[in-house]
Design a protein that fits this description.
Layout: E1 3-5, E2 16-24, E3 28-30, E4 33-37, E5 41-50, E6 54-68, E7 75-89, E8 102-103, E9 106-108, H1 109-120, H2 156-167
Antiparallel strand pairs: 1-9, 2-5, 3-4, 4-6, 5-6, 6-7, 8-9
The structure holds zinc ion (ZN) (2 copies).
Length: 168
Amino acid sequence: MTSFSLRRVKLRPGEQFRDEVELQLPTFDFGGQRYIPVPETIPAAFEITRANTGTVFRLSFTARLHGPCYRCLGDAVLEVPIEAREYQASSPDDEQLATPYLVGDGIDLSQWGRDAVALALPDKILCRPDCAGLCGTCGKNLNDEPHTHDDARPDPRWAALEALRERG
Ligand SMILES: [Zn+2]
Ligand SMILES: [Zn+2]
């Protein structure tokens, strides 16, 4: 878990702090499949800006996930650019003004990063935008072997041949 201790940063209103942090990402379960971050630990830019009434936190990084394509089950690599922002009021009187990632004196960057990636995932993870998927009739990968089936029913001529073979 990557947690950033806020005790080492003392800011006055208008002041800003920036740092590069090493962010560890978990494996994502998405649509019943597993997507693995490669690499697992990535550099992220973390920024704290002190305002008059609270503090703004920013986290930006690009996650890269490896896993199966939704359509053809081939390898898919997905780049997920993240620009996340959280706000913590100095004296929050409702939950809208408090970030859930502030735990004690630290901010839980792993959990925040993971949630941000989960929110940014597309509806379907594909190996390429125009992936043709698997053939509904024979199950072959249509990217490797583009084809169509004119008729899903067995050809009567073949059926006749089968019958002959069985008899013989
Ligand atoms: Zn695919
Ligand atoms: Zn087919």
